[in-house]
């Protein structure tokens, strides 16, 4: 069971967060989100989830972060 509670884009410049406006695809090992226009700079993708690989939800949400930096020109 995969349950994503929120996806955000975090600026590496000032740590400001921009919430994803829509989740397009939410499949195992695939997350496609739509984000509003971003100012030029570097960003990190962060998601909050309560899902596990099984059918049991975690008691507390956990935060995961993509290892790669996303750059907007």
TrEMBL record:
It holds the Pfam family DUF4469. It comes from the Bacteria. Residues 12-63 form the DUF4469 domain. This is DUF4469 domain-containing protein. It comes from Carboxylicivirga mesophila. The lineage of its organism: Bacteria, Pseudomonadati, Bacteroidota, Bacteroidia, Marinilabiliales.
